[in-house]
Inverse folding.
C-alpha cells in the first residue's frame, strides 16, 4: 500500500484506540471544525489518536467545494496537524473500500501498539469520553442497565472482534435506480453476510491483520461495510458483536440527549447520553452541543446513567422537528393479523 501523505500520529507510545475517520480531500473546513471541537491534545489525554483517511483529489467531481482544493493545501494541512493519511487512488464513491482498507492496513504498519481500532465516518457524532470509559472498564460501563450483555460479550471475545451496529439478512439491491444497485456480475448471492454499519465500529489490530491478509486474495467489492466487516470478517473467523443498544440512526434521538425533558433524572442529576454513535445530519451546532455535554459529564463527574425504563430508546419521542434533514428511505408494507 502506497501513501501520498502519511502520518506518525501513533509515534512510539502505547495507544488505547486509534480513530480512523473517512473524509473527502475537499472537506478541509469540516476537518478543521472537528479538530477545533475535539483537539488532538484532548485525544492524547484520553489515550486516543485520530487520523483522517483521504484519496487523491478528483478534479472530475461535480461538487464545487472539491474543485477548490489543491495538493499543496493538503500537504500544509498534513504538516500542521500530522493526522492525514492519503492513499494513491482517486476520491470516488466506488473507491471507498480502497480507502477503508488503506486505513486498516496503515494500522498494521504504523500503529501496531494500539489496543483498539475505531473506524468512523466524518459526518456523525461520537462520544469519545464514553468510548474511553467503555474500552477501559466495560464491566463498569454496562453495570446496572440493559446494555450489560455487550460488556460481557466484549470481555469474552478476546483480542479479535468487530463491534458495531449489526445488519443481518440484508438483501442485495438489484433495482437499477438505487444508489446501492449491485448487478449480479458483481455479487452473485442475494443476501449479504452479517456486517456492521460503517458509521462507526470497533475492532482490534489482531482482527485487522487477519482481514487485511485475506483482502489480498478476495475479490474487490465497492460497498466497503459489506466487504470488510461482512465478507472479510466472516471468512477470517472474526466474531461480530452487536452494539445496537448504544447506537442510533436518528438525529432526533441524539437531540433527546439534550432536551430538558430528557436530560435530567428525577433527582435533577444530568444524564450521560445513551448513545456513543449517532447522526447529526451535518448539524454542526448539535455536534458541538453534544461534545460540550459529554465533556461536562466527564469533567464534573456529576452525570448518571439512565435506568432501563428511562432509556431514550423507550422514552424519546421523535417528532417532525427533530426528524428534519433525516432521510427515512424506502419503507416496506407489512400485513399481519390483528385481534379486534
Amino acid at each position: 500500500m502506497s501513501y501520498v501523505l502519511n502520518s506518525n500520529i501513533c509515534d512510539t507510545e502505547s495507544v488505547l484506540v486509534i480513530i480512523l475517520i473517512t473524509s473527502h480531500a475537499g472537506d478541509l473546513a469540516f476537518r478543521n471544525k472537528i479538530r477545533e471541537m475535539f483537539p488532538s491534545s484532548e485525544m492524547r489525554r484520553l489515550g486516543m489518536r485520530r487520523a483522517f483517511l483521504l484519496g487523491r483529489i478528483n478534479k472530475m467531481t461535480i461538487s464545487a467545494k472539491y474543485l477548490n482544493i489543491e495538493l499543496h493545501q493538503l500537504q500544509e494541512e498534513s504538516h500542521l496537524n500530522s493526522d492525514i493519511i492519503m492513499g494513491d487512488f482517486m476520491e470516488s464513491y466506488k473507491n471507498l473500500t480502497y480507502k477503508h482498507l488503506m486505513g486498516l492496513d496503515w494500522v498494521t504498519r504504523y500503529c501496531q501498539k494500539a489496543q483498539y481500532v475505531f473506524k468512523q465516518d466524518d459526518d456523525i457524532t461520537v462520544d469519545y469520553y464514553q468510548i474511553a470509559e467503555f474500552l477501559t472498564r466495560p464491566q463498569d460501563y454496562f453495570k446496572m442497565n440493559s446494555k450489560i450483555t455487550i460488556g460481557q460479550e466484549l470481555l469474552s471475545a478476546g483480542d479479535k472482534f468487530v463491534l458495531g451496529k449489526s445488519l443481518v439478512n440484508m438483501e442485495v439491491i438489484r433495482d437499477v435506480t438505487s444508489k446501492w444497485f449491485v448487478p449480479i456480475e458483481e455479487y452473485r448471492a442475494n443476501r449479504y453476510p452479517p456486517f456492521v454499519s460503517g458509521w462507526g465500529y470497533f475492532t482490534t489490530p489482531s482482527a485487522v491483520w487477519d482481514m487485511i491478509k485475506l483482502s489480498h486474495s478476495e475479490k474487490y467489492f465497492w460497498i466497503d461495510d459489506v466487504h470488510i466487516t461482512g465478507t472479510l470478517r466472516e471468512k477470517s473467523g472474526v466474531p461480530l458483536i452487536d452494539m445496537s443498544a448504544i447506537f442510533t440512526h436518528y438525529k432526533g434521538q441524539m437531540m433527546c440527549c439534550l432536551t430538558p425533558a430528557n436530560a435530567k433524572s428525577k433527582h435533577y442529576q444530568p444524564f450521560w447520553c445513551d448513545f456513543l454513535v449517532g447522526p447529526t445530519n451535518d448539524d454542526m451546532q448539535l455536534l458541538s452541543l453534544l461534545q460540550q455535554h459529554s465533556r461536562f459529564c466527564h469533567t464534573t463527574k456529576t452525570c448518571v446513567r439512565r435506568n432501563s425504563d428511562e432509556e431514550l430508546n423507550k422514552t424519546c419521542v421523535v417528532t417532525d422537528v427533530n426528524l428534519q434533514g433525516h432521510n427515512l428511505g424506502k419503507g416496506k408494507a407489512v400485513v399481519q393479523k390483528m385481534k379486534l
User: Anything to note?
Assistant: The chain has two domains: 3-244, 250-315. The domain at 3-244 is CATH 3.90.550 (Spore Coat Polysaccharide Biosynthesis Protein SpsA; Chain A).
